[in-house]
């Protein structure tokens, strides 16, 4: 069980935040994400967004997403989005129809799922270490018959 909490707290005019939070669960793992965007009265013309996406890789795993907005200012842009679901079977089918084995197709899909986050990491060493960690985890899943 992992419980993630984030806070984007705007307390000045013309501020900006853009949070992208992604996760994947397998086996009996369960995750809960709760995020709050708070725009205080002083946060006029603030621009805030919060996105949480979750992949459920196996039966028995689960994820919950609880996005929250607290808007006390006028003239702001603010939004949130959340999704929880399995690897898309149509995408797996498409890749399989091109000769890619199911396990490799699922690995490619999960890798692509996290690529959006990795593309935002500006420090090469941090991005490379995160990419390696994802690939190592996916290799373990592949040997277990999951991705």
Strand proportion, as a percent range, falls in: 35-45%
Radius of gyration: 18 Å
Multimeric organization: single chain
Q: Could you list the spans in which at least 5 consecutive residues all have pLDDT below 50? A: none
Indicate the overall shape. elongated
In angstroms, what separates the terminal alpha carbons? 21 Å
Enumerate how many helices there are, as a single number: 3
Q: Could you characterize what this model shows?
A:
31% of the residues lie in helices and 39% in strands. The protein has 147 residues and is of the alpha/beta class. The chain has a 3-stranded parallel beta sheet, with no helix packed on it. A 3-stranded parallel beta sheet has the order 2-4-6, covered by helices on one side. It is elongated and about 55 Å long.
SSE topology sketch:
Layout: E1 2-10, E2 16-25, E3 30-39, E4 47-56, E5 62-71, E6 77-85, H1 89-97, H2 102-118, H3 124-143
Parallel strand pairs: 1-3, 2-4, 3-5, 4-6
Helix pairs in contact: 1-2, 2-3
Précis, in short:
The chain has 147 residues and is an alpha/beta fold. It has helices at residues 89-97, 102-118, 124-143, and strands at residues 2-10, 16-25, 30-39, 47-56, 62-71, 77-85. Helix 2 runs antiparallel to helix 3 (124-143).
Tags for this model:
147 residues; alpha/beta; 6 strands; 31% helix
């Amino acid at each position: 069980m992992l419980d993630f909490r984030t806070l984007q707290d705007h307390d000045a005019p013309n501020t900006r935040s853009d949070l992208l939070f992604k996760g994947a669960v397998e086996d009996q793992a369960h995750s809960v994400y709760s995020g709050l965007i708070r725009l205080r009265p002083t946060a006029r013309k603030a621009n805030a967004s919060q996105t949480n996406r979750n992949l459920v890789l196996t039966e028995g795993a689960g994820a919950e997403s609880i996005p929250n907005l607290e808007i006390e200012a006028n003239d702001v842009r603010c939004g949130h989005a959340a999704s929880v679901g399995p690897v898309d079977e149509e995408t797996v089918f498409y890749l399989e129809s091109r000769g890619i084995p199911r396990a490799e197709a699922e690995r490619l899909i999960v890798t692509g799922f996290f690529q959006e986050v990795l593309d935002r990491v500006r420090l090469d060493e941090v991005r490379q270490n995160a990419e390696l960690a994802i690939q190592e985890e996916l290799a373990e899943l592949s040997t277990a018959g999951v991705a």
